[in-house]
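Co-fold these.
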Amino acid sequence: MDELAFGASAPLTVGVELELQLVRPHDFDLARDADELLRRLGKRKLPGAVKPEITESMVELNSSVHASAATLVDELETVRDAVLQDARVLNVRIAGGGSHPFHDWADRRIYPTERFMHVVERYGYLAKQFTVFGQHIHIGCAGGDDAVFLTHVLTRYVPHFIALSAASPFYQGEDTSFQSSRLTAVSAFPLAGHIPFVRDWAEFLEYFMRMKGFGIVASMKDFYWDIRPKPEYGTIEIRVCDTPLTVRRAALLAAYAQALAAWHLEERPLEPSRTTYLVNSHNRFEACRYGLRGTMVDPYASRKTAIGEDILATMAKIAPHAARLGCGALVHELAAGVRAGDSDAAWLRARHAARGSLADVVREACTRWEKTG
Amino acid sequence: MATEYLPRLPLAFSQAALFGALVIVGLAAGEALRRYASLPRITGYVLAGAALGPHALGLISDDMLFDLRPLVDLSVGLIVFELGFRLDFKWLRANRWLLVTAIGEALFSFLGIFAVMVAFDFRPVLAAMAAAVGTATSPGTVLLVAHDLRAQGQITERLLLFTAVNSAFAYVLLTLLLPFLHFEHQASWQQAFFHPLYLLWGSLVAGWLACILMLRLAAWLGKSEERQFILMVGMVVVTVGIAHALKLSVSLALLTLGMLARNLDRGYAVLPVHFGHGSQLFFVILFVLVGASLSFSAFSAAAAAPVAALILVRFLGKGVALLGFGPLSGIRPGGAGLLALGLLPLSGSAVVMVRDTTLLYPAFGRELAAVVLSAVVILELIGPLATQFALRRAREAHPDG
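Predicted complex below.
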């Protein structure tokens, strides 16, 4: 029960987790040097942390907690550079992006921790197929009730986050025609999806205890939801983003999430609505498949709108909050990209068209990750 | 009754049929050792070759071995090319201690073997040549074992890198020792001076020209794995042939080709090399023939002591350098020892290397062969086991590999 006591965290603080690809330079397939890299990084003093992930071809970079997403940029660049420095010694390159374009999932090896071994035992091949790379954004909440509220209202914006971060057009050597193919790997898990329509934290606890009583879950970690409360940190966690191709974009996405949460917590423009969950699968698919050019159903206005336009309209509404939090410029930069129709998925496809091989795409993604900006 | 349609006895088999049979016997022996004894396949190929070879059953005759020489060269060429392709200059630049470790490892084992051979009263030229040959790890063995185990990771990468460096070291050193050999045989100074120059630069230039041509063609052919695979095999075959015709070093030319193809390819025209099944076929052929040419008669009580000493100092030389410099280059604790073990295989083609460089003085070649041959026999059998053990122990072999 203790793990479900909602931890204290300053409201609207922000932090991110980025799952990164470890790439070997001789053929640009995934490497498996997570262990060696983490051993080296363990000797450094870094803000935040770098942790293992399900397979040995990935590491997860955790930022510290920030009052404003604006200060995330510097920190993420510092940590990125430290990781790159140690990776160079091992001849490993690092890339962002939601999926490795051509690795063979059967070649992956599970990072041998007790939890990951359990995941493999339980989920079989799904565990190795789960070698996809996401960004999780944490937003601090004053209490469990706020967390439940925010989880419900932010679900309306799930297609925004998918479209803004989409960076996994290639999977298993093929162009998937999706902008983000990564979420398909997540959806395969039986506990993927979204939180049930509970009203407050007490009701959520009741639900959780029932699920635990059935023996379906043991902890919050067993839910692979798009947005989930994280009582341990006192946050909610948005989990639908692909890891972008640059740390800067990761900070831009965090800024958008932070300002969006501020608007909803402070002005309460929307109340949780069941309709959100009626249209959610459709909206989510549109965003994965077509990105910014997809259409979504606005559950509150009950009409269809283009995802890109809905994002721009939302950004205009949250601008005062973004400015007050000191991340107005970041949200602005993100908006400019939406207007121009930029996306990481489009960039990856363009590189493939220009270069002609997926190994080239990975190489250029590595180079892009290494650069500031 | 006319029976002309029936074959006459005894049956006359073509060399091609015998050769095909060799491949199948080698393949089966490798698979059997792998399956029932958990030994490396390569040991099975070598043992099959040795059993069928002129020194045992005699199904493979000396003549046949001679006829199949081009095939051995081609196999060695492909292997050395692939190895060269793994030699990443960028890594060596980013991690200077890695270069120090690689050179230290080669240098220490060279000096160690040289000292021991001199201590056993071998002439310095002979000792130095034996030491140069002894420095190199067998590229084929290391690549094949790593491939068989589907090994992946830092120890595997470094094993291949060090093998590439110590092979290059050995080839260059053997060439540079030629003047001493010429002087020993009272050759003219012109010959002593120009022969190594011709051999060294000729091989490098041949590899370089082949590389330029290959990069151009690869860029023109585009990013198709099939087309590029054919291009690479074709390029290797041609370069082997040219190196032969020009009396250059096949190994050095092909290592140069692989190395430069990786490091000069600024436009990234060449796709990553994956020889796959094709190279497996060459591996089987090569090691069956290596097994067949192993001469167990080289063993004698008198040779036992120097051979044991050679193997020991070779291992120690590599071990000391790896333990000393390895950790500075980022090898994890315990990794240095495993690498020293992994580098144990001594190249069977070392003998070929010796024969090629000393073609002018066959008597010297035989003398040298007598020194290193026993070591080759022993390490050809123990080496793959050591490499397999090292990669498994390093947790880099695939669980199903």
